[in-house]
Amino acid sequence: xxxxxxxxxxxxxxxxxxxxxxxxxxxxxxxxxxxxxxxxxxxxxxxxxxxxxxxxxxxxxxxxxxxxxxxxxxxxxxxxxxxxxxxxxxxxxxxxxxxxxxxxxxxxxxxxxxxxxxxxxxxxxxxxxxxxxxxxxxxxxxxxxxxxxxxxxxxxxxxxxxxxxxxxxxxxxxxxxxxxxxxxxxxxxxxxxxxxxxxxxxxxxxxxxxxxxxxxxxxxxxxxxxxxxxxxxxxxxxxxxxxxxxxxxxxxxxxxxxxxxxxxxxxxxxxxxxxxxxxxxxxxxxxxxxxxxxxxxxxxxxxxxxxxxxxxxxxxxxxxxxxxxxxxxxxxxxxxxxxxxxxxxxxxxxxxxxxxxxxxxxxxxxxxxxxxxxxxxxxxxxxxxxxxxxxxxxxxxxxxxxxxxxxxxxxxxxxxxxxxxxxxxxxxxxxxxxxxxxxxxxxxxxxxxxxxxxxxxxxxxxxxxxxxxxxxxxxxxxxxxxxxxx
Length: 486
Description:
Residues 48-126, 392-448 form the YdbS-like PH domain. The chain crosses the membrane at residues 25-45, 150-172, 192-218, 336-355, 361-379. It comes from Pseudonocardia humida. This is PH domain-containing protein. The protein has a 7-stranded antiparallel β-sheet with strand order 6-5-4-10-9-8-7, sandwiched between helices. Strands 13-12-11-16-15-14 form a 6-stranded antiparallel β-sheet. Helix 12 packs antiparallel against helix 13. It is globular, with a radius of gyration of 29 Å. By secondary structure, it is an alpha+beta fold. Among the domains are: 2-48; 145-220, no CATH class; 328-380; 385-466. The longest helix has 29 residues, at 193-221. It has helices spanning 2-16, 21-48, 87-91, 117-127, 156-174, 178-189, 193-221, 262-266, 285-288, 299-309, 316-319, 328-354, 357-384, 422-427, 450-460; strands spanning 51-54, 58-63, 69-74, 80-85, 94-100, 109-116, 138-142, 225-229, 233-238, 243-249, 253-261, 269-276, 292-298, 386-390, 393-398, 402-409, 413-419, 429-436, 442-449. It has 15 helices and 19 strands.
C-alpha cells in the first residue's frame, strides 16, 4: 500500500506544487497515510475473516467482512491449480494459488492469496492427484538461453519504444516541461533533415523497444520448464521476478496452435499454444499467457514439443499436406491491404492540406513504403492459407503478420458456422468456423471454396453438417443402345 500511495502521491504533489509547496504536502501526506492505513486494515480484516478447507470431496472457501461469501468446488471437477508469486510475495516466502474447475466463470474459481510456498505446492499436488495411466512422464522442454534472440523480433519492441516516448512526454508534462523537451528534440534533429530526423527517431525508438523486449522476455520466461506429471498433467514453470506455475490436465487438451509471428517466422521460430477447455481469460490472461506451452523457439523444437504434448509421433501441423485455397482469396487480401494503407494515409493528407505541407510529404513518403509492404504481406497471407486433415485432427492455417497453424481434435468440434459476405458470395468463397469449447471458441478455415469447405467440415465430423447440405444428384449411367441384330 505504501507503493500505491507513492505512485499516486508523487504526480499529485508535483501538480499542486505549482500553487504552493505547503498546500501540496498538506494534501498528499495525509492522503498517503490514509491510503496506507486503510489498506492495511482492510487486508487485516480480510485475513481474519477468510477460511478455507480441503475435504475428501470438496474445496470450500469462506470470506467477506460485511458480505459473507461461501464458495465450494467439487474436487473431481478441479482442473487447474496455478501458483504465482510476485516479488513482494517472494520476499516473505508466500504465493497466490488459483484453483479452477475449467469453467470460464468466476464461480468455478477459488483464489487463496497469500499462503506459504509449501502450502501452495502441497495444494497443487493434492488437488491434481490423479491415478496414473502408465504413460511416460518427464521433462518435455527446458529453457535455452539462445531463444532470447527472438524477443526483439516481435511487435512488442516497437510498441515499447513508442510507449517510452509517450512516458517521457508524460513525465515532462508533470513538471510543465513538455514543450521544452519537444523543442530540444527538434533542435537536435534539425541537422539531419526531414528524412534523417524521422530515421533517427525510429532508430531510437527501436533501440529502446529492443532493450525493453529483452527485459520483458527475461522476466516472463526465465527458468522456463515444461513437464508431464503423474496422472497426465502438463505443468509450465517460468518467471524471474514473478514466478508462475501453470498446470493443465491433458483431458482438457483439444489440440495445439503453432503460432509464427512474422519476425519469428523469418528467423525460423515458432511458439506453441494449447487449445484446451477452461483456460483463464480476461484480465487474468493478459499478463501470464496461460495457454502458451512453449515460447518462441526454433521451428523444429516447436514441432517436437507439439507432437509430445499431443502424444503423437509427428505433430499434425507438420505431418499434414494443406490444400491451397482459390485464387480469389488472394485478390481479397490485396484489396484489404491497399484499403488499410488508404485509411492510414487519409488523415495525413487531410491535415496536410489544412495545416502544413510537412504532413503531405510524410504521407507520400510513408505511402511509397507502405504500398509494396502491404501487397507483399497480402501475397504472403494467401500463400499461408490452407487446410487439411490427418488422423483425428483438422488442421487450418492462416495469417501473415501472425501465422497460425491450429490442429484441432475432431472430437472437440461441437458445431459449425458457415459465414459469407456479399463479396465472398460473388467469388464463391466462404469462411467455415469450427466451434469448440476449447481455446478461442472457434477456429476458421478462411476464404475457402464453399463446396470444398463444406466437404472438409462434413468429413471432420461426419453427420453433424449432413442435414444442412444439398448435394447434386449423381448423373444417371449412360446406357449403350442395343444393336438391332435383325
